[in-house]
Amino acid sequence: MRKKISVIGAGNVGATVAQRIFDRGYADVALVDIIEGLPQGKALDMLESGPVLGSDATVVGSNGYEVTANSDIVVITSGIARKPGMSRDDLLFTNMKIIGDVTRKVVEQSPNCILIVVTNPLDAMAQHAYQVSGFPRERVIGMAGVLDTARFRTFIAQELKVSVEDVHAYVLGGHGDQMVPLTGYTNVAGTPLSQLLPADKLNALVQRTRDGGIEIVNLLKTGSAFYAPSAAVAAMVEAVLLDKKQILPCCVMLKGEYNVRDLFVGVPVKLGAKGAEEVIQLVLSPEEYMELRKSVEAVRELVGKMHEKAKTG
Ligand code: APR
Asked: Same domain, yes or no, for 133 and 149?
């Protein structure tokens, strides 16, 4: 029997995630949204691409959660996206309500699933889904690092005129302006980036990576990025489905690793059939560690606001 992946939110990110998974043909997909007809229409359209693509998987759309029952993985993309002038944090209270509600309904239908959270502000939403679900930390994973790292790798490959596949990089920390591209661990087919680029060029690429989301928002004007985010989600889904034990930067609950406790932060994680199977502890330079601390404090502040709101309503 094929595995089952559900995607909540049939907007730009959700529908593209569903499409990428359906196209690969190895999992059945359920797509859920509150807008009547939207998930049904997109799912049917996708299904009808099967004969052309050679995918025998099924994809169904619904406004209810019954279709998601017994999913192996549930990807949560529901919520509002940024418009120009908005930070990811501006989405906090609206999306917190949506994520709480959606997570409860998902868990009712699929108590053993692995949750992949995409909705922004990512770190806080992943933390909220974790608390509402009551799942062990292995089974709640936020998607940010694969995307941020992909942006960094794209810019490096463009600058150096090399294959994107030869660029190895990690971006850690929160999915915000304070994310930490680890330049010390970044290399092109083994050669450290510091030997290939002068410091000012490197700093410019780091800054462009930090602003990667807003660069797209400013161009699109009506929404935020979805091609690269959906590709990042598909890579994480694949690592879990195929039990790849692949080490990818993901947002997970830390319990003392990197000196962070009880907070969702982006770190390298081994992804396999059980979800986030292991947090990989990299040795950071003092500068990288300081930057990570700053990023962690920004996440902690946001999560604090969320907890305050949950108390006061
Ligand atoms: N249940 C199900 N779906 C919902 C709910 C809900 N309670 N609330 C909103 N949605 C749906 C909307 O109807 C919409 O179709 O979520 C979808 C969001 O789609 P888009 O507006 O196209 O946003 P998208 O670009 O997909 O981004 C979604 O991912 O990357 C993040 O910052 C981004 O938080 C945003 C999320």
From this structure: no
**Containing domain of residue 72, as a range?**
3-142
Report whether residue 13 contacts ligand 1, using a CB cutoff of 6 Å: yes
Residue owning the nearest CA to atom 36 of ligand 1: 119
The overall average pLDDT reported for the chain is 95
- Is residue 313 situated within a structural domain? no
Q: What is the pLDDT of residues 237-287, one digit of tens each?
A: 999 999 999 999 999 999 999 999 999 999 999 999 999 999 999 999 999
Residue spans of the chain under pLDDT 50:
none
- The beta strands (E) that lie in the chain are given as 3-8, 27-32, 59-62, 73-76, 114-117, 140-142, 167-168, 171-172, 180-181, 187-188, 191-192, 246-255, 261-272, 275-279
Query: Which residues are identified as catalytic?
Result: 175
Phi/psi at 134 (5° precision) = 70, 10
For 16-33, the pLDDT digits (tens) are: 999 999 999 999 999 999
185: in domain: yes
What is the distance in A from the centroid of ligand 1 to the CA of 17? 12
- C-alpha 32 – ligand 1 centre gap (Å): 10
